[in-house]
Amino acid sequence: MSADFESYEQDFAVLTAEITGRIGKVPKLVGDEKKQMVANVEKQLEEARELLEQMELEVREIPPQSRGMYSSRMRSYKQEMGKLEADFKRSRIAYSDEVRNELLGDDGNSSENQRAHLLDNTERLERSSRRLEAGYQIAVETEQIGQEMLENLSHDREKIQRARERLREADANLGKSSRILTGMLRR
């Protein structure tokens, strides 16, 4: 059974490599070549999905003790398939936008899109202005608080300096008193 699975794996690897190459070519092509390439990629993606289904059936028939390894491989193949489909979808969207623009004769910038874009930009600008205004208010408040703190610190410094002067005077007076008392004791 694992031989069938490995055969499907090889086919899947070859097919996904071809799909990847073709998806890369889609944006570079024009006209009928592009339409043909898109149709080919769609067919190959369908083949790849069928291969994945076959591999899943094979994994279900594998004994449970060795099924874990194959299950993890299947998960990675499914992820790869999802990535391929997303890449193809992106290339098709670019392709369909291009076809629409060719048919309508415009460059994709309709007045409605421009209006919506301008409204979005205006909203963003207003939000930014409000944030700047709020930031400015905070800065002004912070500056006022800082000035008040500096004034308080200045007053505290003056008080400390006055207290220090009083202590020096008291120390000098204590020194004088001590000398006077010492002199009195000697007499």
- CATH fold group of the domain at 3-104: Methane Monooxygenase Hydroxylase, Chain G, domain 1
- End-to-end distance, in Å? 125 Å
Give the uncertain stretches in residue-range form: none
Number of strands: 0
Summed over residues and divided by their number, the pLDDT gives a mean of 84
* Helix/strand class: mainly alpha
Give the CATH architecture of the domain at 3-104.
Up-down Bundle
What's the helix-strand series? HHHH
The Cα radius of gyration reads 42 Å
The largest β sheet comes out as: none
Looking at this structure, what is the CATH superfamily of the domain at 3-104? t-snare proteins
Strand content: under 5%
Percent in helix:
over 70%
The CATH class of the domain at 3-104 is identified as Mainly Alpha
Helix segment tally: 4
Inertia-based shape: elongated
Secondary structure layout:
Blueprint: H1 2-25, H2 31-61, H3 64-104, H4 111-186
Helix pairs in contact: 1-2, 1-3, 2-3
Report a brief summary of the structure.
The chain is mostly helical and 187 residues long. The protein is 92% helix and 0% strand.
Structure, explained:
With 187 residues, the protein is an all-alpha fold. The protein has a domain at 3-104: t-snare proteins (Methane Monooxygenase Hydroxylase, Chain G, domain 1), CATH 1.20.58.400. It contains four helices and no strands. The chain has helices at residues 2-25, 31-61, 64-104, 111-186. Helix 1 (2-25) runs parallel beside helix 3 (64-104). The longest helix has 76 residues, at 111-186. The model has no long low-confidence stretch (mean pLDDT 84).
